[in-house]
């Protein structure tokens, strides 16, 4: 029981850290250009991962597959963070955390590893989330969606593709999670360095507050969150882990309002409730569908279907 509670606490902490990342990123982009923030986040993460990989207590050999897959995922992850960081710079942290949660219902649509079509109720849940996005983006009246909201919506689509790609490239292949994370952070650093080189003087002369936010984004929201998630998921069920990690948008709203001074209108609040309800509902439907499909597949293998013979 003690181990289970500790595992749950770690997963909730990961969700809280991810939920807080939107306000931290939004605040950092006020002081620095987005590309400088992204380069600093990746560079600090790469240094931390490199220190862990080369430590005496961690002696595992790299494989070509880890380098190849990690490099590819580094490109797709960089695309996600570009859209997320530019998006949160032009919308509220609460909106950003809610819209990005669409990833939960978009990922099963992009992941074609399953052998059966999703039930119609899943698409109903996805439609509920679409309505929620509409309420969030037009909470102050009917108008064109804000740039930040559109970018966060694009980030949710790209992140869903990234998650589906992770599953496809790592399925059935023993790969070290720290090696994959290190490869991704190194690739991200290399991609953003030439784009942020003109902003390096501003980065070097940033305030202590800004550097604290950058270090928090790198060490806690990236390195710690990924490794803690990997450790915690191994000690609990996938269903329970996804339920606890699914509280990320709730933390994003709570932190945005309490620490960021943001406010939600009545319609936006209604949209937030619909978004959380829709993502949880869709998540539960997909999980049940996946479990049923796996069980049926095993039964089919154990008892092959008899084909009729001619008389």
Automatic annotation (TrEMBL):
Q: What is its main location?
A: membrane
**Annotated InterPro entries:** Diverse_Substrate_Transporter (IPR051258), EamA_dom (IPR000620), EmrE-like (IPR037185)
Residues in domain EamA? 9-137, 147-280
Membrane topology, as annotated:
Multi-pass membrane protein
Question: Region entry Disordered: which residue ranges?
Answer: 291-311
Pfam families per the record?
EamA (PF00892)
Origin: domain of life:
Bacteria
For this UniProt record, the keywords arranged alphabetically read as follows:
Cell membrane, Membrane, Transmembrane, Transmembrane helix
Protein name (Swiss-Prot/TrEMBL): DMT family transporter
């Amino acid at each position: 029981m003690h181990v289970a509670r500790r595992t749950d606490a770690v997963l909730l902490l990961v969700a809280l850290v991810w939920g807080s990342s939107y306000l931290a990123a939004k605040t950092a982009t006020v002081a620095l250009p987005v590309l400088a923030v992204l380069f600093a986040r990746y560079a600090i993460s790469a240094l931390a991962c490199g220190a862990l990989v080369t430590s005496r207590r961690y002696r595992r050999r790299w494989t070509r597959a880890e380098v190849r897959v990690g490099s590819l995922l580094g490109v797709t992850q960089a695309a996600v963070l570009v859209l997320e960081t530019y998006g949160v710079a032009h919308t509220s942290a609460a909106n950003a955390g809610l819209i990005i949660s669409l990833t939960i219902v978009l990922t099963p649509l992009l992941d074609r590893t399953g052998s059966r079509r999703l039930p119609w109720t899943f698409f109903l849940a996805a439609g509920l989330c679409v309505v929620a996005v509409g309420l969030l983006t037009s909470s102050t009246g009917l108008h064109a969606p804000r740039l930040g909201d559109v970018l966060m919506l694009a980030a949710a689509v790209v992140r869903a593709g990234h998650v589906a790609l992770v599953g496809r490239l790592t399925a059935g292949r023993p790969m070290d999670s720290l090696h994959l994370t290190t490869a991704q952070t190194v690739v991200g650093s290399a991609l953003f360095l030439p784009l942020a080189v003109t902003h390096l003087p501003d980065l070097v002369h940033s305030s202590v507050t800004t550097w604290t936010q950058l270090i928090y984004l790198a060490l806690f929201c990236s390195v710690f969150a990924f490794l803690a998630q990997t450790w915690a998921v191994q000690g609990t069920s996938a269903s329970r882990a996804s339920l606890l990690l699914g509280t990320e948008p709730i933390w994003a709203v709570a932190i945005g309002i309490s620490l960021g001074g943001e406010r939600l209108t009545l319609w936006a609040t209604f949209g937030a409730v619909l978004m959380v309800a829709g993502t949880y509902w869709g998540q539960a439907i997909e999980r049940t569908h996946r479990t049923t499909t796996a069980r049926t597949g095993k039964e089919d293998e154990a008892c092959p279907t008899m084909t009729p013979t001619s008389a």
